[in-house]
Description:
The protein is α+β, with helices and mostly antiparallel strands. It is built from 9 helices and 7 strands. The protein is globular and about 55 Å long.
Amino acid sequence: MSALQHQHDRKTGEVWERLAMVTDPELDESVTELGFVEQVSVDHDDGVEIVFRLPTYWCSANFAFLMADDMRRAVSSLPWVREARPQLRDHMVAEEINKGVREGMSFGDALKDFAAGGSLDELREKFRRKAFERRQETMILALRGLGYEDPAICRMDLSTFDAINFDSEEIARQKPRYRELLVERNLANLAGDRAFVTYDGCTIKRHEMVPYLQRLRGVRINMEFNSSLCRGLLAVRYREVDGDRPSQTPGPCGGCGSGCAAQSVGPTVTKTHSAALV
């Protein structure tokens, strides 16, 4: 492999890693794990094109815009990227979304017919709350599984939480994701801060834990149902099997790790995933 090819493969892998950090706002699952990202191309001038698709032609325009903009932000944060260009395809307003994100427009300016009030800040906040609650329920149930009782969980500080190790790979993956939102919301930053409070920063009292978890369970079940529905619709629409989908872990080729072929066209390296549109 030439030095130029190796460099392009490395950069492509870095792009996939950043995309793996972008989530579907409604599901709190990675867009790469969901199979939404179809192709990543890095050109000779360090411009990056990200081709993605959604489960249906009529998926919510505001969700699609959020994901496209989050992809652009995530990939643009790489120091070597000159420009990140998400390209949504097979969607009723793909052209408007692609143009709006590319030109840095707000959702309201890009899709006036779909924007109520013109801002997606309220929607982002709604889904950030759901993500926090889903991740928090995962951690509370995991602690219960280790033998921690509710009073101890309610009193647990951040240093104690940080010191706990989980054998489950999925729980270990969710732990830093939950902690990330604690810090982002400024709910827990210091070692002595409580590790488990509500999204609004209120203390969870011992006698409130059972009804609180019942509500969080409802949030999780709704998100899991929507996730299964999206995966099924995407698989039917594009007739894909799991092995054809991009993985968030770079493989030997330095790209998506799914076994796809690296197509070199001049200085551009493209990772392509086969899909037949229904």
